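User: Hi! I'm a student and our assignment asks us to look at how structure tokens line up with a sequence. Could you show me two examples?

Assistant: Happy to help. In each example below, the sequence comes first and the structure tokens follow. Example one:
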Amino acid sequence: MPALVLFDLDGTLVDPAGAITGGISRALQARGLPVPAEHVLDAMVGPPLGESLRRLARVPEAEVGEVIRLYRADYRAAGMSGSRVYPGIVPALERLAAEGTLLAVVTQKPTPIAVELLQVQGLAGYFESIHGAAMDDLEGASGKDLGKIPILAEALERYAGRFSHAVMVGDRHYDLEAAAHHGIDAVAVGWGFAADGELAAAGAATVAASVEELQEQLKALDEGIRQSGGSR
């Protein structure tokens, strides 16, 4: 059976090129709210926007919905087209697809927006499925944050019985934690938005510094599984 490789989106496949952080800044300014420091804005790339606005930007609950609305309008108007695919990603996806690898996206971005972004960037056709969050980011801050765990669970359930082993590829601790929770391998990439030490703290033994290194690590995992005659 083929391998299943599950990719994160922002910071892994696509560089938002300031579209996310800039859009958040503009939305906050439009509501007369303070804009966090750059390193805080960078940390907001990955988790659900509502969670980030409450926890990192300290946006009052009454303002969260309107900030999200303004951000999404800005992102759809200019952010998607202003983003760019990281160099080397397309050839890597083509190679994996040619080898018969099952490819999917697992992201905390709402699914319809993730699909639209992948279409705009010309990547949608490489993936059999795209798994994201619900459009509603307005759930109460008191709700338990499970990160990517339930989204990855949905993807793994879809492909149950169809893969020899699964690998989660991503740039944030959410990716590594979800993979560990579900007992699958993970490859951390170093060109995204993780803070210094974040990936190591989440259990990454190594971090791929380039798409070439990512491909080498995926190949090594695949060969190791095949030689052991097992699956994961």
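Example two works the same way, sequence first and then tokens:
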Amino acid sequence: MNKTIIFDLDGTLTDSKEGILKSLEFALEAFGYDIPPYETQLLFLGPPIVDSLQQYCGMTIEQAEEVYKKFGERYGTIGKFENQLYPNIIDLLAKVKNEHYTVALATAKPEIYAREILDHFSITPYFDVIVGANHKEGLIHKKEILQKAIDLCGNPLIDDTGRRLVYMVGDRKYDVVSGNELGCISIGVTYGYGTEKELIEANAEYLCEDTDDIVMTLDLEEMLIRR
């Protein structure tokens, strides 16, 4: 029975904080908005930027979309590459690929940026499915993005014994909650932007401090499946 593993991008595969926050500051300054405290800026890492601008900067949706367009001017040219892979990510991707997982990406980042980032780090060949935000298709929030990724993978959620076969790996509550609601095994990583407390409150089934922990979790689940 084919197994599926779906990864988030920012805070899970790559540390993209520098490019996102610099582009956010660029966009806010362009329109004369105050720059939020650093702790608040960190909350922008994960959910759609337009949502965060409304929630944390008190903008209307029209204002937020205008600022987001300016954000894209910098992020789409410079910011997306102010970014780096977390340690041992390539080894992790190689392992799951070699073990015949269907490997997917599900990110709230626009899909065009996600594909460019994967290409930049030469990791696109590890992925069978890549899904990012696409407003024309109504793909904005994590749950619908994840649902499309699951559908495109084409593998069952459970086997004949009822064991779940799809893993969602991410660093924020949005990843965990969406994964749980869609029947995935949720793996929260604590090396990204979400806190351990956030992931526990979102009911992550596993917490992993690094890629070695992710490997051990997958190996444990494999043992359970074979019983």
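Here is something you could point out in your write-up. The first helix runs from residue 17 to 30.
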